[in-house]
Amino acid sequence: MKAVTVSSWRELDEAIGEAGRSDGALHAHSTLVFRGLSRSGYSHMSGLARLQGDYAAVESHLIRNFRKYAHRAAPGPALWDWLALGQHHGLPTRLLDWTFSPLVALHFATATWPEEDALLIAVDSAGAHRLLPEPLRASLQEEGALLFTTEMLSQHAPDLCAFDRLGEGRPPFLVFFEPPSLDERVVNQSSVLSAFSSATYQLEEWLADHPGLASGWVIPAEVKAEVRQRLDQANITERVLLPGLDGLADWLRRYYSPGSIAYGEGAGGSSMAGQEDSRRHEGRMGP
């Protein structure tokens, strides 16, 4: 995937709209899902892969023990419900966070590191799902759905071993599914999750193999400031996307950090918000 550098909010807005016109027409429901990275040099590596070493070998242990110790917060019967809950709370998983909303993705691309270039990517989820094994494609067609639910996935893959077996003898495939509405954060962020049929396969590899299904835009620091201003004017802020006291504190930290865009000193200073835990801004949609 080749990312295009934009020079203004208007150019970025028009590029996003054009990317959603897969057949040249404007549709009410776009098939694009988005991710925003606050630094263009960040990778799309999963939280599980960031453990390094033989991380695939510990995946089942992480999930088993998370389910054992988090039983009081049971999200639903399916393994995929537990994976979504774990990802939501920072458990290292093979999942990646996405959103249907380019504005939400842009928030996480611009909320920190104001002096750094940001990156926004979009993937055609319908195009990605056309590459799925036949049983999964048939399930989507039968339901008339764009994305999977956790229940739909569990019908074909009750566990990750079964999920991985669906991809045997073929390149790893990419599945997008909507998590349960665990809380208002999931709802307000229009959250979408993705999973590969291999714990060791990463998004960069998939993007390189399927350049026609993805678009990317580099947002220079000076444009990042303009985008951030537009988002704040539209109330796309931590107070909305991260409901509760944590989101309020994040919003106030950013707003009053010297050198931040909101503080009125442009995008050239060093923002305290940029020093936060990097896992939030290396592909995670929330804290």
From TrEMBL:
Biased amino acid composition, Basic and acidic residues: 276-287
One Pfam family it belongs to: FRG
Start and end residues of each FRG domain: 28-121
SMART domains: FRG
InterPro entries: FRG-dom
Annotated region (Disordered), positions in chain: 266-287
Record protein name field: FRG domain-containing protein
Organism: Nonomuraea aridisoli
